[in-house]
Amino acid sequence: MGKARQGDKRADISIVLCGQAGQGVQTVESLLTRILKRSGYHVFATKEYMSRVRGGANSTTIRVSDKPVAAYVSRMDILIALNAGAIEHVAERLSSDTIVLAEGEAIAAVDPQAARLFEVPFTQTASDIGNKIYSNIVAVGAIAGLLGLDLDQASDYVKHFFARKSEDIVSNNVKALAAGYDAAGKLGLTDETKLRIKGSAKVKDQLLLSGDEAVGLGAIAGGCRFIAAYPMSPSTGVLTFLARHGAEHGVLAEQAEDEIAAMNMALGAWYAGTRALASTSGGGFALMTEGLSLAGMIESPVVVHLAQRPGPATGLPTRSEQADLELALYAGHGEFPRIIFAPGTIQQAFELTHKAFNLADKYQVPVFVLTDQYLMDSYYNVPGLDLAKAKVEQHVVKTDKDYRRFKITKNGISPRGIPGFGDGLVAVDSDEHDEEGHITEDLNLRVRMVDKRLAKGEALKREIIHPELVGPRDYKTLVICWGSTYHVVKEGLARLGRKNAALLHYRQVYPLHPSTADYVKKARKTVVVENNATGQFRKLIRLYAGVDTDEGLVKYDGLSFAVEEIADGLTEALKGK
């Protein structure tokens, strides 16, 4: 067993919990992050997990900081290993400074020089209380003790968390928390692990939101009243969130028999006048593409939440990747306009999902909200969401008897009516059609209709969101990223301390903002960071901005970038610059 060492108290601590599926790792994560937030500390949590209900090895990383934090780091300051295989699972992240709390069996299998090992009998302690099931709460107590959190405050939240359970269960969980807290105190580590900052009252009142919750809230704010989906990681959280809160917000959640049905249900809802969301992942969206083309032909609004994971086929179903950009960009047969958003923060996930519904309605096109497992399963505290801007913009018209659903207009946008609202007939058809929606094989009219639909693509360019530049405007080096890599790249680049380097982040990846070429040409060196193997966004820049970038920094092992990887990768890419 290692000996306690004296060191500086920390203001940014990375805690990793690792154990088998079914051991309650998620419960520890949920309890600990909320106890920390209630204590006034900034927190960030993200997870990686295997595709199984029991067994395997899953881990959660929690960062506690004296300032807002929203990025994953590889560093492990404290590791709580809940089973024998946990330490091996995260062995690459161990360092000689890592404090490991584990059962004796797990410690015995580890090189004592690899980390600082401390035995804590989680299972036996829990069994003494009444059941080994409480071992995860013993772990919560141990972490609370190491960080120097207030035990009474932590106990109050544990009581709240288990309030629906019996008195005995609540009491035993509180005992387990206290036992873990005491066990950590006996290790003699608190002088170096205790947080050196006091909690802030402002943080206590902030929201602790995950990516799937933010997308779900954005849908509600955007006027969504129907979601159709077939459960598929990592998109399922949005379906379950809206199902859980649907009654209070007037949202009907339908678990369809498959993704084909889900997409067509969503289109049917829009046709009838209800704003709808189809939510899925890559493999499920592959089944939706015929319906997407139907939306293009009948000029139906539709919002598609596409949560990316590694493919092809089933790939790594519970891991993360940014490899479906080209799928969203080119999906569907025929040519029709679309919008693709890729939120990089919790706030953007809310704001862009809300915006997606208004733009889909206004331009009568498919709008994608492109996320990934990392964003969906991560959460951190935010000051709040800007509800003042969350307006529902209505674009449905009351029809008259001469109504033409596909009336040709200069900007390609026809007045959209819905059945029963007015005197007109709202006819739509998957075949090419005339202005009234009736099937046609008039080839000249075909050209006019294609031009009409594509004209909307030109019109919606007025809505393109400008990319965010972080850093000096007179940069020499430009690091470009999109979607969920925002916070990781921002922190990684900041570590380099380069005063002539800036970050350019895209939360709308299509249509591409016309300023892109100017940003790239201004830089002496450009690096594009993305979680895929072929540099899909880098190719998109070349195709639509007409400029080449210098280098790509990619990762495609199923895990998100860590801050350290970004810093190291950029250091290598920028050598000599």
Distance between the termini: 47 Å
What fraction, in percent, of the residue positions are helical?
25-40%
| Low-pLDDT sequence parts | 1-8
Label the overall shape. Answer: globular
Total strands:
20
CATH superfamily of the largest domain: Pyruvate-ferredoxin oxidoreductase, PFOR, domain III
Mean pLDDT: 94
Structural class of the secondary elements?
Answer: alpha/beta
Task: Determine and state the CATH class of the largest domain.
Answer: Alpha Beta
Number of domains: 3
Largest sheet: 8 strands, mixed
CATH topology of the largest domain: Pyruvate-ferredoxin Oxidoreductase, domain 3
Percentage of β-strand residues: 15-25%
CATH architecture of the largest domain: 3-Layer(aba) Sandwich
* Number of helical segments with 4 or more residues: 21
Strand order across the largest sheet: 6-5-4-1-3-2-14-7
CA-based gyration radius: 26 Å
Keywords:
single chain, 577 residues, alpha/beta, Pyruvate-ferredoxin Oxidoreductase, domain 3, Rossmann fold, 3 domains, eight-stranded mixed beta sheet, seven-stranded mixed beta sheet, 21 helices, 20 strands, 39% helix, 19% strand, disordered N terminus
Written account of the structure:
The protein is of the alpha/beta class and 577 residues long. The protein has three domains: 12-205, Pyruvate-ferredoxin oxidoreductase, PFOR, domain III (Pyruvate-ferredoxin Oxidoreductase, domain 3), CATH 3.40.920; 208-389, Rossmann fold (3-Layer(aba) Sandwich); 468-573, Rossmann fold. Helices cover 39% and strands 19% of the residues. It is built from 21 helices and 20 strands. Strands 6-5-4-1-3-2-14-7 form an eight-stranded mixed β-sheet. Helix 1 packs parallel to helix 5, helix 4 packs across helix 5 (135-147) and helix 5 (135-147) crosses helix 7 (167-185). It is globular and about 85 Å long. The two termini are 47 Å apart. 51% of the residues are buried.
